[in-house]
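Methods — Computational structure assignment.
A single polypeptide chain was analysed. Its primary sequence is given first, followed by the predicted tertiary structure written as structure tokens.
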Amino acid sequence: KYYPPDFDPSKIPKLKRPKDRQYVVRLMAPFNMRCKSCGEYIYKGRKFNARKETVQNELYLGLPIFRFYIKCTICLAEITFKTDPENTDYTMEHGATRNFQAEKLIEEEEKRIQQKREEEELNNPIKVLENRTRDSRLEMKVLENLQELKELNQRQARVDFESMLQQSSELEKRRKEQEQEEDVRELQEMLEMAQVKRLKDSDSDLNSDSDQEQENVKKMLKRLKKARAYEKSTDISTEGTET
């Protein structure tokens, strides 16, 4: 580049840039929002090519506030939001609505309660003592609950579930054996009653009926014994496979 001998840089007018000059930046959505035009949800962390500018006549403790322009991914409507250095957050400005954030509301409520408590304790020593007493009681209650939970966990850790299952299976097995013994006993009583009836009856027709009844009882007794022997064999085979 050629500079003539009479070149004087002080005579060159300075380029005045507008204060509301915009820059193209790459950013992510700072919070969940919903477009007012089409209802599309834009989730936190979604990337956009945005335009950035400095908000005029707005400062917070000397810090500038920036405005960002993005477009909806569906309808291309313009959405704007600003920085909020006071709350270290962003504020929705135009084109969309910010989704409900329960966590933020809880934090704000906790700050408000803490600030109110500090204001009450500022010139009231009795209130300070009451709050300390309440805090100590709450702490003791929390420690007691933790101790109860620890004891409960220790009791559960000492429980042997395999022994409990084995005990329940043994009880079930004993119950089945008792039922089978009762069935055998009832059949034997029926057989004895049939024999007594046969001795008392003198009629041949009655004798034939009692013989038939006795045969039926004997068959039932044999079937019951076979079923019992089969169940014992299956129990032994299952125990062998488990071991």
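Note: The first helix runs from residue 102 to 122.
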